[in-house]
Design goal:
ten-stranded mixed β-sheet; 33 strands; single chain; mainly beta
């Protein structure tokens, strides 16, 4: 027994002697990698290519089903990032959604220029570009053949694929500081244009005449065989290969709506939205007949064609032509309105208008707010610059300091104005403002005054202002746009 105890003691001492203190674990700090924020927005205030305004699109004409985004270095064309978005990852119309792309610290330090390519609804044109595609493949990509051409004209938007939309920005400057970088907005537009036919006849004493529109034909040699996905500096993206030679016939409507004053439906210089609504309402009321729609590749040529019609068994032909070449550049809509007046004469009226030019925008930036800098009216307070971009704004006794800014996006969002510092000593009005560019061009006036209910000596109390934007369920920091590094200190 004693021997057993002795052996046990030896074993215990051996174990103790072999015990080591645990090695210290080095904690490696998590290093935040620089990122380039990507905002994909569907703004309501869009650019146009004409003074007449924009033509509203249907839901299918605007819907996004997928989106591919490539970012390359402008020099050397090395790929920086690729995004393949679909389903719930896509932004809803009128909303903004942010995506973050990690970049190297060397990229953040040198901030080289980049080329950005965006393609939406790629399946609609059978496009096979992918993450592995090079700059050369993306930059020179074309579509054609049966895709939005004359062989099988697209007369209804496929609800599973939508319409092709593209956008490109070449040689874009990278702005911002690490870890948040940005580049300017890339606008996404439809890569096709739209043709629409509408007809009616006058309702008069000769309404028993048999009048029909038998066929509307676009002449051949006008629609290009193929076009580039991504435009250059020119308004067209026509690829080499010539033009489709065959004409595009469209069968006329089975009957013509009767209208007491068809001439009131002729385009008369109103904005495009109002004109399209005028036509849509006339169709809904049964005084105008929708004779069909086509979606075709853009053309730099002046579209021409003819209408075959019959009056009391006698066939007639009436030619038509666009006003000028370029009216069928991508993302335009072109309407042919035909109407029969007394005397059974067919009149044709034609107009071409932008097609709500950019339903979507891809904004590679650290925020999607579009605003001017906040400015203090120095006639309402004593303003002095204490250091570079730092200003003291001393309120005058009994007076209100006033400032202003203009903010245009995100439309229908809300600008939140927060006092920072001795907030209870001041009243800031408003603290919430609607973002509405159609009201005073988006101007928001801000007033800062002493809080009359604040107790005690308020001398020397001060606040600064901070700005954020609420867009849906997101909150966006707006200080970089509205203050741009400036600090205004409001002092009692």
């Amino acid at each position: 027994m004693k021997a057993f105890r002795f052996i046990s003691l030896l074993l215990f001492l051996a174990l103790v002697s072999c015990r080591r203190e645990p090695l210290p674990v080095e904690t490696v700090p998590v290093v935040e990698m620089p990122q380039m924020g990507i905002y994909i927005a569907a703004p309501e205030a869009a650019q146009t290519r004409a003074d007449v305004g924009e033509v509203p699109a249907t839901e299918d004409e605007s819907h996004l089903y997928d989106m591919k985004v490539w970012v390359f270095l402008s020099e050397g064309h090395e790929k920086i990032a690729y995004l393949n978005l679909s389903g719930s990852q896509l932004p809803a119309a009128g909303r903004t959604r942010r995506y973050a792309v990690s970049v190297s610290r060397d990229f953040a330090r040198t901030r080289p220029d980049v080329d950005v390519f965006v393609l939406a609804n790629a399946t609609s044109i059978g496009c096979s570009l992918s993450e592995e595609s090079s700059w050369e493949e993306v930059n020179s990509a074309v579509f054609g053949g049966i895709r939005f051409g004359i062989t099988e004209p697209v007369r209804v938007v496929d609800p599973l694929y939508g319409l092709p939309m593209t956008g490109v920005g070449r040689g874009l400057s990278v702005q911002g500081e690490e870890p948040v970088l940005k580049v300017e907005t890339v606008t996404l537009v439809r890569a096709v244009s739209k043709v629409r036919y509408v007809f009616c006849r006058m309702k008069d004493a000769e309404e028993n005449d048999e009048i029909s529109v038998d066929r509307i034909t676009l002449n051949g040699g006008l629609i290009p065989v193929s076009e580039y996905l991504f435009t250059a500096s020119l308004p067209y993206a026509i690829a080499p290969g010539g033009y489709e030679l065959e004409p595009i016939p469209t069968e006329g409507p089975a009957s013509l709506a009767q209208n007491e004053t068809p001439e009131k439906l002729v385009y008369a210089g109103q904005d495009a939205v109002s004109y399209q609504k005028l036509l849509d309402n006339a169709i809904a009321e049964g005084v105008l007949t929708d004779a069909g729609t086509m979606y075709l590749r853009e053309s730099d040529k002046m579209l021409t064609g003819y209408v075959n019609y019959t009056v009391n068994g006698v066939s007639h032909i009436r030619n038509f032509s666009m006003a000028q070449p370029g009216d069928f550049a991508r993302n335009h809509t072109w309407t042919l309105f035909g109407y029969f007046l007394s005397g059974r004469n067919l009149q044709l009226a034609i107009n071409a208008q932008p097609w709500d030019y950019n339903t979507y925008q891809v904004d590679f930036s650290n925020q999607s707010v579009q605003a001017t800098q906040f400015v203090v009216d120095d006639t309402t307070a004593d303003v002095s610059e204490t250091s570079h971009d730092h200003f003291d704004v001393r309120l005058r006794t009994g007076l209100t300091a006033k400032g202003r800014l203009y903010i245009t996006t995100p439309v229908s969002g809300k600008l939140m104005i927060h006092p920072v510092g001795d907030a209870s000593s001041f009243i800031v009005n408003p603290d919430i403002a609607d973002i509405n560019p159609s009201l005073n061009a988006g101007r928001i006036d801000v007033e800062i005054r002493r809080n009359p209910n604040a107790e005690g000596d308020q001398s020397g109390k001060y606040i600064t202002l901070s700005f954020t934007v609420e867009a849906g369920d997101r909150e966006i920091d707006a200080n970089s746009e509205i203050l741009n590094g400036k600090v205004y200190r409001f002092i009692l």
